[in-house]
Amino acid sequence: MSTPVLQVEGLAYAYPDGHQALFGVDLHVHQGERVALLGPNGAGKTTLVLHLNGILEAGAGSVSVSGLPVTKGNVREIRRRVGVVFQDPDDQLFMPTVRDDVAFGPANLGLRGAELDTAVHAALEQVGMVEFIDRPPHHLSFGQRRRVAVATVLAMQPEILVLDEPSSNLDPASRRELADILRGLEVTVLMVTHDLPYALELCPRSVVLSDGVIVADGTTYDVLTDDTLMSAHRLELPFGFDPRSMRGLAGR
After folding, report:
1. What is the rounded average pLDDT of the residues 17-28?
2. Tens digits of per-residue pLDDT, 91-108?
3. Within 10 Å of residue 15's Cβ, how many Cβ atoms?
4. CATH of 6-86+158-246, one of 3.30.559.30, 3.40.50.1000, 3.30.428.10, 3.40.50.300
5. What is the pLDDT of residue 87?
6. Residue 188 CB neighbour total at 10 angstroms
7. Is residue 145 pLDDT above 70, yes or no?
8. Contact at 8 Å (CB) between 229 and 188?
9. Of residues 211, 193, 199, 119, the one with CA closest to residue 156
10. What is the torsion angle, in degrees rounded to the nearest 10, for the CA atoms of residue 12, residue 54, residue 36 and residue 235?
């Protein structure tokens, strides 16, 4: 098999207060995969994500993206390769217009003029938000702001798109629209979510992190139908939702 686009080897991390959040995590994600990262609150999911683009530095072990180690010296290129979309789009959008927000990252990479305009339009096209290019982000709905937040990352042409709870606070229509967008992207996706039906719909593979270690890595269908695993790690399906009824649709 080809070299993983994301390679995490023996990753361990303790916060300054002594709390050990990760204990030797191994994770490999290959180009084009869509992988859900599941687990209860406090499992270490956010800590893991913060290592992927150099916000946190590994206490032990290593992280690399397409063979490039995540180190302080490489952090600028790593943050181009690994784009993180935060749970709250207002943490990501801070410029006067949608155009300015989406242009911010590519402009920092040195893009100017027509090349920058092309990158901005292409990213907004991918999320269906071109018509809002001159609108102030705070005039948009929550779902629209989340799509613009995704565009700010896509404009950097990342190799990996990391999404933190992408379906949270979305109404059903916005949730479906975002799923359609994510399904159509030609980029490797790592999706951190508590929304298990969304994981089943979008991600053929799921990894379960619990108490700082990976306790399961398999098809999302197999993970969600393993009642013992689900119960042991505080993962609960919505009332009335049965993954078995969606087997043919999972992770398309």
Report:
1. 94
2. 999 999 999 999 999 999
3. 11
4. 3.40.50.300
5. 92
6. 23
7. yes
8. no
9. 119
10. 50
